[in-house]
Amino acid sequence: MGAARWALAAALLTLSLLVPAAALTGTLGLREELNASLRNPGAPLGHAAAIAVDLDAGALLYSHNATAPVLPASTEKLPVSWAALVRLGPSFRFHTDVLGVGHREGTTWVGDLVIKGFGDPTFVSTDVDELARDVFAEGIRHVTGRVRGDESFFDRRRDAPGWKPGFLGIESPPLSALVVDRAHGWPRLSPPLLAARALRGALLRQGITVAGPHALGRAPARALLIAMDRSAPLAKIARALNADSDNFTAEMLLKALGASTGGLGTTRAGGAVVLQELRNAGISTDGVRIADGSGLSVDDRLTAATLAGVLRAGLTDERIRGAFRASLAVAGRSGTMRSRLPDLRGRVRGKTGTTNQASTLAGLVDGNVVFAVLHNGSPVNWWAARTAQDRFVTVLSGRG
Fold first, then answer.
1. Do 346 and 318 share a structural domain?
2. For the chain, is the Cβ count within 10 Å smaller at the N or the C terminus?
3. Is 382 in the same domain as 243?
4. Which structural domain, as residue segments, surrounds residue 22?
């Protein structure tokens, strides 16, 4: 859908939020049923925000606090993944390079080798081994210097703004442009040093001698590309991000969006890109704050209306709709919805979210209605909120 059409659709949605749903759709009965589905003593209606919109026509079916900025939990990953698919494209692949600093004399590299990361969240030991085999295939048998790790594509912050101290290492591995095996090992808070050690070991196993130890370092612009690893396409990575709600992948992707503008990959720069893509699509950003990529931050804010706009944009844009739809968990079948809504197995695709202050669910019902339900609390009653959300979706599924 073009920007002009999205701007018109957004304007109609904003207008519709000011008019009772019954006046717009003639579905007073549906509105009453949806209101009733959300009423739960453990999750007060006043602490909930919800919306339901016809996917194709954009007609508003239901709205409650839909423009109120609330904590989104992991539904934050929806605008992040959508913006990444739009900005970078479903076929985008991360890469990790081995660069030579120095010069070659026969089978000897005189100088250092640098492994430089560009934000691949899926980079693992087998990829490092493949890079070592590629170096061997280039005819290099000796390295007179060190193997260095370069994370300069991103900043060096290991967590994101608004995270609790305990989140780092539990909810997400430390962030860096160069991370292998999700920074498993010691020192964990220096992912590029772990990666340099991994490459040095892989080179030795290939029969390539390395005179110096592993270390940190930044490759100069004149460094020579010797080998490159490429990730799976973003379309595949997005499935792990949304269906399995992978916090680490979300944060790395947000920083990669920040770097896509030509500057340093930071969480703040990535958030600015997401907001700009929302505006480009005519989706309201009033009250929206993209403080991180995963939804762990207490500084994040989304509205139900914005989530509905993102879902409609992702599911109707022919460039990305296949990848975006496939990234959502399927009720009763996959991801974080594997055990939810078993009676609607295969009929609901969505993104769940849970923190101690938010319980959320947003997605697609029967292929033709997008919805978002967000409960906040201090703390939120997860069981009561999920019960209300599941009832809401069940009512939507039987609206005909």
1. yes
2. C
3. yes
4. 3-91+236-397
Measured CA to CA, the distance from residue 140 to residue 105 in angstroms comes to 9
Residue type, 96: T
The residues, any chain, with a CB within 8 Å of residue 29's CB and separated by 6 or more, are: none
Question: What is the rounded CA–CA span in Å between residue 327 and residue 329?
Answer: 7
- The upper half-sphere exposure of residue 372, i.e. CA atoms within 13 Å in the direction of its Cβ, equals 33
Residue where the block lists tokens 């990444």: 84
HSE-CB at 53 with a 13 A cutoff on CA atoms is 32
Q: Could you count the other beta carbons within 10 Å of the beta carbon of residue 383?
A: 12
The token pair that represents 228 in the structure block = 């490159």
Query: Over the stretch 288-333, which tens digit does the pLDDT of each residue have?
Result: 999 999 999 999 999 999 999 999 999 999 999 999 999 999 999 9
Residues 16 and 56 in one domain: yes
pTM (predicted TM-score): 0.91
Note the pLDDT tens digit of each residue in 194-243.
Answer: 999 999 999 999 999 999 999 999 999 999 999 999 999 999 999 999 99
